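2024-03-11 09:14:02 INFO receiving multi-entity request
2024-03-11 09:14:02 INFO entity count = two
2024-03-11 09:14:03 INFO echoing inputs for audit
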Amino acid sequence: MQPSAKEQGCPGKDCATCPMRDQCSAAAEKGVLTEITKKILIRMQEVKHKVLILSCKGGVGKSTVTSQLAFALAQRFSHDSTTPLNIGVLDIDLCGPCMPKMMGAEDEEVHQSAEGWSPVYVAENLSVMSIGFLLEKKDEPVIWRGPKKNGMIQSFLSEVAWEGLDVLLVDTPPGTSDEKISLIQMLNATCKPDGAVLVTTPQDVALTQIRKEIMFCHKTSTPILGIVENMAFFCCPHCHVPPGF
Amino acid sequence: MQPSAKEQGCPGKDCATCPMRDQCSAAAEKGVLTEITKKILIRMQEVKHKVLILSCKGGVGKSTVTSQLAFALAQRFSHDSTTPLNIGVLDIDLCGPCMPKMMGAEDEEVHQSAEGWSPVYVAENLSVMSIGFLLEKKDEPVIWRGPKKNGMIQSFLSEVAWEGLDVLLVDTPPGTSDEKISLIQMLNATCKPDGAVLVTTPQDVALTQIRKEIMFCHKTSTPILGIVENMAFFCCPHCHVPPGF
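2024-03-11 09:21:47 INFO inference complete, emitting structure
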């Protein structure tokens, strides 16, 4: 069910000479190196590993898993170095960005430099980029249709000066729609992601959706690195007995 | 931040004569009665009250609130009648439809008749429509960009033969994006919805998002009927003491 170039109204001519190539996902789909994909390629080559955090269902803890994974990785060292790993977090949930809050950087702002957008550093080796840092009013909803969201994701991938990362964790919105299609198309056309960490909860409704997410990964040739079963039980703070006992 | 007609590539000519009017949201925005809006108007005039269930954040229980509200309303009577209210549920969460499961109608199918799509009846006075009933494989993800999703929502509003409803509850996906913009534009251009029930949980991250949802309702002139604070506490099944005591 992935939209073809034809379905998107593409006349089917050569992408490399098409005047719309920089706004069009069909060019990225075909692996044509447009100006934007060239810029994304340069930025993403500075990142050793790119890991996506995915879940079709909302509220299962994608952002929590992303932030905890980021903090945990930032305390580790690479095999051949005595300096800790350099970790970046990119939040592409444009309508509901919660990474600033999760990373404890709510009041920070992103600055523009000659190198591009400078992400927010929550530790010396841990940086974050989110649309939450760019909004003037924190309560303002982002009421954008697909093309505008795709443009923002292009900018995130091509404009952020990560300055050499070991791991970039990408937190995504729920669903299998514009943001995720664009992200994976743009990455597949430049530097493929290492894979995806899927997050779910044990409820039937969440499991149905995780099966869809697995199919989504297969269809987009995204390797699955693992599945986190979040909120598997709740240990009562009063009697300390986990349910089922 | 609502996308203007100009931003969507509209040449700004008269919508009523524009050949793209049926595919274009700008026409609906301006209240031009295209063929599609005329069809939606006819269908929606058969529905007395239209209530949207909204939340910017996923996993807060929109679908659960929708289904429980539907079952509860279906047991009530109108003031001037001895027959119970006629209730319909429309699930426009195209990427993660869980209404079939929530309403206990997982294996049902939608049938086409001369009147249009016949929704699935879970009780004599309670009918449901969801993309979940239309998918051949239940685990198949719906990987659609905005325009294709908008087309599906248009079809849901214009093709489903509800056969005279007292209340139509519309379950929506998380975010403030294509599906919700299209739904509200299409309804505002035809029969305005009565209002929205907002769903949230007490966590800080969810509250930030509910403020965005309130702003979204103000911007789209959608009255807020109430806010449900879901999952406000968890009562341990072992010691039966709610947390905080």
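2024-03-11 09:21:48 INFO post-check: Helices of chain B lie at 25-29, 35-44, 62-73, 99-102, 146-159, 178-188, 204-219.
2024-03-11 09:21:48 INFO post-check: Chain B touches chain A through 55 residues (CB under 8 Å).
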